[in-house]
C-alpha cells in the first residue's frame, strides 16, 4: 500500500480555507452584508475545518472514508442551496480530496461524487427547502464556492502527482504496493524515515526469521543478536551522514546444536532521498564455512610439513652417524690398511662404500628438500666469484666422471670474475646436482659441458650432456620429487629423482628458475638462472 503523508492533505485544505478567507475579505471591502458574508464563510469553511480535525488519523481507511463523505455532503448541500447547475463543480471536490490519498481512493471518490450528484438531481424539485441565503449571499456563495473548488482540484492534482513521484523514487521502478523486492537476489528490506520496516522480500524474512512475527519491526529490532543490531545501526548512521551506500558484515549466533559456526551475512545500507533506507543482505555462511575448512586444512598441512621436517632431521642425524662409520670402515678395507683382502671381499668392500655414500647423499637431499618445502631453508647471501664455485665443483665431480669415462669441459668468460650476491653453499649444491646427473646418465666416451655467464644482473649456469635425452612428456614431469625419466632406467647408475627437484627449489628461493631443454637421442641441457640478491 502507498504510504500517506499528512502534509499532502494539509496543503489542499489550507488552500481551500485561504481562498474562502480571501473571498470573504474581498466581500467585506465591497460592503456586502456582514451577516450574509459570515454565514457564507462558515458554510464554505466547514468541510475543510471538519477534515482538519481528522488529519491526525488520515492514514486510517475509516478516516479517509469520513472525509470523502464530508465533502460529498458539502457538494449535495451546495447543489440544493446554491442551485445544481451553478454549483455542479462542487462535486469535483470529492475526487480532488481522493487524489491526496492512494489511487484506490480516487475511484471510490468518483463513485461517491456521482452518487451525490444524482441524489441532488432527484432531490431538486422534490424537496422544498427554506431560503437559507438571500440572493446576494447566494451569488457570493456560488462564485466563491466555484473558486475554492477549482483551487482544491488544482491542489489535489499537484499533491497526487507528488505522491506518485515519491512512491516511484522509493521503489525504483515500481510502487511499494508491488512485488518488486522479490526479483532481487538476497534479502531486501525497505525502512521508512522513522526506521520502521515497510516491507521485505521472502528471502530477507527467512534470513532474519520474520515469518510469523507480529508487531512492529524496525532496523533496531531486525536481528535477535545484540552485536548485529549495533552493527546495523552504526552502518545506517554512517550511510545517512555520507549520503551513499555503506557495506558491513554481520555475525549471527548459531541457530542450534548442529550449527557450529553461526551465520555470516553481508549487508549494504542505501539511504533514500525520502529519509528512509534500503537494506540488501546476502547470506555468506556457506562461503565462510568453506573458507574455514580451507584454513583448517592449511593449518593441518603446515603442521604436518613441520612434523615431517623434524622427523627427517631426527632420522638423518640417527642415520648419518652409523653410515659415516660404515663408509669409513669400508674405505679402510678398500685401502687394505690392515692387510690384503681375498678377491671377493675387496669387491664387497667397494660396494659397501658406494652404497653407503649413495644413502648419505640421498639423506642429505631429502632433508634439504623437506626444509625447503616447510619454509625452513634459510638463505645466507654473501658476495663471491661464481667462477671459483664452478671450478671447485668440477674438481669434486672429477673422480666420478673419470670412473664413468665421461669428459667434463668448463666454459668460463676468460679472466672476468662472475661476482654475485647469493647463497654460496646453495649455488654449489645446485651445480653439483646438475653435474652429478649429467655424468651419471651419460654414456661412456661422451662429454659434459659447464658454462657460466652474467647476463642482465643474473648468473646463468648451464650443464649440457649428449646422453639419451627425454621426451616432451617426460620433460614436463622431471623436477617433481621422486620422478625420473625413462632414459634413466637405461643406465646402471642409481638416482632418487630428488636432484632436479632440489635444484629447482633452491633456484626459486633465490627468485630464479630452472629451465630444461631435452630431446630423445640428443642429450639434455639444464639452465639455472640465479638473480643477484643485491638487485632483487
In short:
The chain is α+β, with helices and mostly antiparallel strands and 536 residues long. The protein contains 14 helices and 12 strands.
Please explain how this structure is put together.
- This protein has 536 residues and is α+β, with helices and mostly antiparallel strands.
- The protein has 4 domains: 6-171, no CATH class; 180-283, PAS domain (Beta-Lactamase); 289-373, Helix Hairpins; 381-531, Heat Shock Protein 90, CATH 3.30.565.10.
- Helix content is 54%, strand content 15%.
- It is built from 14 helices and 12 strands.
- The chain has helices spanning 6-29, 34-53, 61-82, 93-100, 103-123, 135-171, 202-207, 226-242, 285-334, 343-373, 386-403, 424-440, 472-477, 499-509, and strands at 187-191, 197-200, 246-252, 263-271, 277-283, 381-385, 407-411, 419-423, 447-455, 458-465, 513-519, 523-531.
- The strands form 3 sheets. The protein has a 5-stranded antiparallel β-sheet with strand order 2-1-5-4-3. It has a 5-stranded mixed β-sheet with strand order 7-9-10-12-11, covered by helices on one side. Strands 6-8 form a two-stranded antiparallel ribbon.
- α10 (343-373) packs parallel to α14.
- The longest helix is centred in the middle third of the chain and has 50 residues, at 285-334.
- Residues 166-178 and 485-496 have low confidence and may be disordered.
